[in-house]
Amino acid sequence: MTVRKPLKYFVALLLALPTITQAAEAPTLNMANTAWMLTSSVLVLFMTLPGLALFYGGLVRTKNVLSILMQCFAITCMVSLLWVLFAYSLAFGDGGANNAWLGGLGKALMAGIGVNTLKGDIPETVFAMFQMTFAIITPALVVGGFAERMKFSAMMLFSLFWLLLVYVPVCHWVWGDGWLQKLGVMDFAGGTVVHVNAGVASLVAALVLGRRKGFPATAMPPHNLVMTVTGACMLWVGWFGFNAGSALAANGTAGMTMLVTHLGAATGSLTWMFCEWIRFGKPSVLGIVTGMVAGLGTITPASGFVGPLGAIVIGVTAGLVCFSATNYMKRTLHIDDSLDVFPVHGVGGIIGTTLTGVFAATALGGVGFAEGVTMGRQLTTQITGILVTAAWSGVISYILLKLVDAMVGLRVTVEQETEGLDTVLHNETGYNL
Questions:
Q1: 322, 312, 262: which is closest to 291 by C-alpha?
Q2: Sequence-distant (≥ 6) Cβ neighbours of residue 212 within 8 angstroms
Q3: Crossing angle, helix 124-142 and helix 168-175, to 10 degrees?
């Protein structure tokens, strides 16, 4: 009798082992990671409202300041609703046999996602919210390419279509287990998905709409650099959530990402400042904050893969190349990308995504490449991701602009542009002094 009882308990324990193993393997909520991701989501939303809105708002002329603030605010609201309705599902859902290209609609309206549903070890609601903030800021960046001359109705339609037909597919390809991710493209926080995507779209928009009245002969300086610098400072702080939050955990990767993000911003700022100082004789406040944005945009794709050395080299390269690209576009090509979205974000995204394939090498302080992948092969993969993103964004953006033009017209009249979009489109003025 005394022998049978232990044997009985032993058999029961053996039968329970599969259940115990399954319970051990089930994902569990990590409260530290969740807290960090909640914070990061707030920081990235802070980049758009108020960061980008103030940064862009200060760069335009007095008569158009409210139009920029309105566009950033309206895009935030519209994209938030679209993301929950079906955009999140298309970007990060399971597309079945077609998953390489687009996710399915299984998570439309957050179907199947409750308070206890996890994505890794954080709530999927938090992951969806974090990704929503990226979807918000990307079309908001494009606004800078057509600032001061596009109709509000046209902006809303273009942003809606662009989110669904440009941002969502590229996001899925790179981050949603799509074909570029499987190919091995390294884009930690948005070099292709955000910066190349938005930069190319803004360039196409600037070319399709044409120059503002008087450009380039008439000087169009920022109306409020204090507002611009305030917005730039908010962008710098918010970018820690943008990049370090993309680790999806409060760990060593997030810590290194935060450090290299800061170094990229600082070196980009100083490099742009010295370039301007040498070329024009004086360093400007506008130059140093623009260099910061260039440094941040350029370090973004590499931020989770490189060390401090890579960050400094990438930041210096961003300052040099983006400064040259900005001056070349405005002074030589006379392309009116009003707020320099392509030469700063587009060119920065291209540089950063390419150099990720170099400075991710362990010999240069990076995390290394996938097993069996050489630097040459990784560079080829990175360039493939850039070319595909640029081609998709450029072609689809052009088609959408033409479609919206046929529907409601893209541009305000010359008289309306002269009067200013604040009064013409919103019946308000930014300043009543």
A1: 322
A2: 148, 149, 220, 336, 338, 417
A3: 130
Structure tokens at 353: 């995504």
Listed by start position, the domains of the chain span 32-426
Please provide the size of the chain in residues: 433
What is the gyration radius of the CA atoms in the chain, in angstroms?
24
- Give the dihedral of Cα atoms 414, 156, 170, 393; nearest 10 deg: -20
Task: Output the pLDDT for position 27.
Answer: 84
Compute CA 17 distance to the chain's CA centroid, rounded to the nearest angstrom: 46
408-429 confidence digits (pLDDT tens)? 999 999 999 999 999 999 999 9
Convert the pLDDT of each residue in 324-344 to its tens digit: 999 999 999 999 999 999 999
Q: What pLDDT is stored for residue 6 in this prediction?
A: 53
The pLDDT of residue 341: 98
Residue written as token pair 């689809």: 396
Residue 242 Cα distances to 82, 246, 288, angstroms: 21, 6, 21
DSSP assignment string, 224-286: -HHHHHHHHHHHHHHHHHHHHGGG-SSSHHHHHHHHHHHHHHHHHHHHHHHHHHHHHSS--HH
Taking phi first (over 0 means left), then psi (-120 to 50 degrees means alpha), and beta for anything else, what does residue 420 get? left
**CATH of the domain spanning 32-426, picked from 1.10.3430.10, 1.20.1050.10, 3.40.50.2000, 3.30.457.10:** 1.10.3430.10
* CA triple 365-366-369, angle to 5 deg: 140
What secondary structure does DSSP assign to 62-118, as a single string?
Answer: GGGHHHHHHHHHHHHHHHHHHIIIIIHHHHHS--GGGTTT---STTGGGTT--TT-E
* Residue given tokens 């908001």 in the structure block: 140
Half-sphere exposure of residue 118: CA atoms within 13 angstroms, side-chain side: 12
* Identity of the residue numbered 162: W
Q: Which amino acid is at 140?
A: A
SS3 (DSSP) at 289: helix
pLDDT of 20 reads 45
0.85 cut: is pTM over it?
yes
Cα–Cα distance, 243 to 220 (Å, whole number): 33
From the list 394, 428, 2, the residue with the least C-alpha distance to 170 is 394
Q: How far apart are CA 118 and CA 25, in angstroms?
A: 13
Low-confidence ranges of the chain (pLDDT < 70): 1-25
